[in-house]
Amino acid sequence: MSARTPLVSCVFVCHDGAGRLLLARRGPGARDEPGTWDTGAGALEFGETFEAAVTREVREEYIASPLTITLLGVRNVLRDDPPSHWVAVVFAVRVDPATVAIGEPHKFDRLGWYTRAALPAPLHSQLAPTLALLPEHLDRLL
């Protein structure tokens, strides 16, 4: 990535439709912040729709297929270390918890289902602003 070229990331908050959120703990091979808990995300590929990117990434990271995909908003993510600029298009994705498993063990070493009131620690630095876009009542996304 050129230091002067922003990239587009499709960020997805997977949920079960009943108030629980799926989070992954970033393993030693993660791009940044290993050991922290985060939602899923992946770069948009050339010619790909947002929904296709989210579907591909959910399958790659969690072996699951999206049941619903809902656009939540867009964030501008600027980081100094390492220098990067991402346009994060954020989605809520309902999945069937029975189908979820780690699909990229080189990036994640644990998965868990959590409520907003009982999130694990430590959290990735971008998790709070991502979750701020998520409605309080996930059942309204169904």
Characterization of this structure:
By secondary structure, this protein is mainly beta. The protein has a single domain (7-134), classed as Nucleoside Triphosphate Pyrophosphohydrolase (Alpha-Beta Complex). Helices cover 13% and strands 37% of the residues. It is built from 2 helices and 7 strands. It has helices at residues 50-62, 127-131; strands at residues 7-15, 21-26, 37-38, 40-43, 68-80, 83-94, 108-114. The chain has a 4-stranded mixed β-sheet. A 3-stranded antiparallel β-sheet has the order 3-2-7, with no helix packed on it. Strand 5 (68-80) and strand 6 form a beta hairpin. The model has no long low-confidence stretch (mean pLDDT 93).
Task: Give a nutshell description of this structure.
This protein is mainly β and 142 residues long.
What does the secondary structure layout of this molecule look like, with pairings?
Blueprint: E1 7-15, E2 21-26, E3 37-38, E4 40-43, H1 50-62, E5 68-80, E6 83-94, E7 108-114, H2 127-131
Parallel strand pairs: 1-6
Antiparallel strand pairs: 1-4, 2-3, 2-7, 5-6
Task: State mean pLDDT (0 to 100 scale).
Answer: 93
Structural class: mainly beta
Q: What string gives the helices and strands in order?
A: EEEEHEEEH
Biggest sheet, strands in spatial order? 4-1-6-5
CATH superfamily: Nucleoside Triphosphate Pyrophosphohydrolase
Outline the biggest β-sheet: 4 strands, mixed
Q: Cα-atom Rg, whole angstroms?
A: 14 Å
